[in-house]
Amino acid sequence: MLTDIEIAQNTKLTNIEEIAKSIGLSEDDLDLYGKYKAKITLKKLRELQSAPKKGKLILVTAITPTPAGEGKSTMSIALADGIRKIGKKSCLALREPSLGPCFGIKGGACGGGYAQVVPMEDINLHFTGDIHAISIANNLIAALIDNHIQQGNQLNIDPRTITWKRCIDLNDRALRKIVIGLGGRTEGIPREDGFNISVASEIMAIICLSRTISELKTRLDNIIIAKNYNKEPVLLKDLKVSGAVAALLKDTIRPNLVQTLEKTPAFIHGGPFANIAHGCNSINATECALALGDYVVTEAGFAADLGAEKFLDIKARIAGLHPSAVMVVATIRALKMHGGVSKDDMKISNVEALKKGFLNLKTHVENLGKFKVPVVICINQFSTDTEEEIQALNAECKSINTPVVLCTGHGKGGEGSIELAKKVCEVCDSETSQYQQLYPLEMPLEEKIRTVAKEIYRAKDVSFSDTAKKKLAEYTAMGYGNLPICVAKTQYSFSHDKKLIGAPKDFIFPIQDVRLYSGAGFVVPLAGDIMTMPGLPKVPAACNIDVDDDGVITGLF
Fold first, then answer.
1. What pLDDT was estimated at residue 67?
2. Distance CA 515, CA 205 (A)
3. pLDDT at 556
4. Nearest partner of 135 among 525, 543, 533, judged by Cα
5. pTM to 2 decimal places
């Protein structure tokens, strides 16, 4: 049985100019990064931004993650390939992988089996340098802040209040909390600092929400980096360096074009942290795909309670997107785990556990109904799924009046996704979507948080720490009360407690702190300890990765 990377390496790729030509792009519309990767030129990007958006947008999300895995990216790619198989023009718009998970525990983000985007080694590693550029831009800001203080501190910045951290695109727990400026007067001002992983940088979120370089510079200007000794906010524009930072990002704002194993065009661009930020690919990539494809498949990070909610309440609102359908990915084995089955026993047929775990899927489907977008359930099928379990799942889905389709895209690619593609396109073409957001921007910040917690997480109520209440009042007084919220919580439960699997309800949802992403344009309430710099596991994935004298990589997944 071939591994994912072996399947990808055994596939003959098509030159990216041919992939581009299939959706109406010429060689002049591309800047090539070798034979199989390209960026859209700024000129063409502007044309596509103003072009009619003929594509119908399909958002892919999932049930609450389990150690068994759900295969959301794989099913997204399989669906796009399946749509091509039934004679319709599809495009993908997905996120870029971070090096942290690639060398850590999760692995890459290029799909799996016979539903992958390629060249998977390049995409999973350095790709076109977007995340590296974001890291350098982020760290330029950090260096300029410390230099400003060293050179006289005309802005009267209080070093104790600096919120801007450095970043690196690796999992490195030793960098979470550090002390800088040691060694004497010429080495800077000693202070506590720390690193985030690059995909948690506010610049990553800004790149994904900015259409133009002008908008990028405006959002950069609006970043709050610290307070002065009078307790007033200090913005990046006060340092007068946004132009220099944007210069490092002039190519990063442009979407990347690659292909699937079956030659479906794929825009892979941006990858903000799905906890601390909104966890979606860039607006620019999505708009390019909508201008060039008839059906556009995109995804949001983690499960529907985090990823889909943020896509629908933040990204779609900001970009003016109107999703035609939402596809929720689940596996029978994961549903059984939500029903209490251990990972060791998930291959054993257990209808009762399946029915119990179905409540997790049902709750996600009910939540999505509040956004008035039709839902299709996609079951990523495994060989261990029994006929009895499949029949039971079909009956449960019928009870909530939601179509369900089994998909074997992992093993068969587009051929295994034909029925799924037919059903999703049928739902899109029915034009029943009446997409709406969950809350209006005019709603007070506390009420927005309470609305999401009650309506999506099924909490009884929300408790706010004194710190959180103080910051929410402060942000409102500063004029940020009309921003959307981007809740940071565990992805492993509807609640704040990762141990509460299934579909917990009637709990008190605790907001311990709040952060302001004034450049990206949202407020982040924190429920629990959210790690913006992950650590490596006992045996990192890096231990299995190698490369030979011909440059052929092995062990990457």
1. 80
2. 14
3. 87
4. 533
5. 0.96
Neighbours of 344 (CB within 10 A): 7
Predicted local distance difference test score (pLDDT) of residue 528: 80
Number of C-beta neighbours around residue 320 at 10 A: 9
264 vs 261: CA distance, rounded Å: 8
Locate tokens 């996120």: which residue? 95
Residues of the chain with pLDDT under 50: none
pLDDT 10s digits, 503-540? 999 999 999 999 999 999 999 999 987 888 999 999 99
Angle at which helix 202-209 crosses helix 130-150, to 10 degrees, equals 120
| SS3 readout for 452-487 | HHHHCCCCCEEEECHHHHHHHHHHHHHHHCCCCECC
Q: CB count, 10 Å around CB of 405?
A: 21
> Which pLDDT score, from 0 to 100, does residue 29 have?
98
Q: Which of 500, 482, 478, 483 is nearest to 491 (CA)?
A: 500
Exposure letters 257-287 (e unless 16+ CB within 10 A, then b):
bbbbbbbbbbbbbbbbbbbbbbbbbbbbbbb
| Residue 18: per-residue pLDDT | 98
Distance from C-alpha of 284 to C-alpha of 207, rounded to nearest angstrom: 9
498-501 long-range contacts, Cβ below 8 Å, gap at least 24?
Answer: 501/64, 501/66, 501/337, 501/338, 501/340, 501/360
State which H helix or E strand residue 168 sits in. strand 166-168
Nearest-CA neighbor of 476 among 446, 450, 509, 512?
Answer: 446
CB-side exposure of 80: number of CA atoms within 13 Å?
A: 36
pLDDT tens figures, 147-188: 999 999 999 999 999 999 999 999 999 999 999 999 998 999
Report which residue type is found at 536.
Answer: L
**The predicted structure's pLDDT at residue 529:** 79
Q: Are 504 and 495 in contact (CB under 8 A)?
A: yes
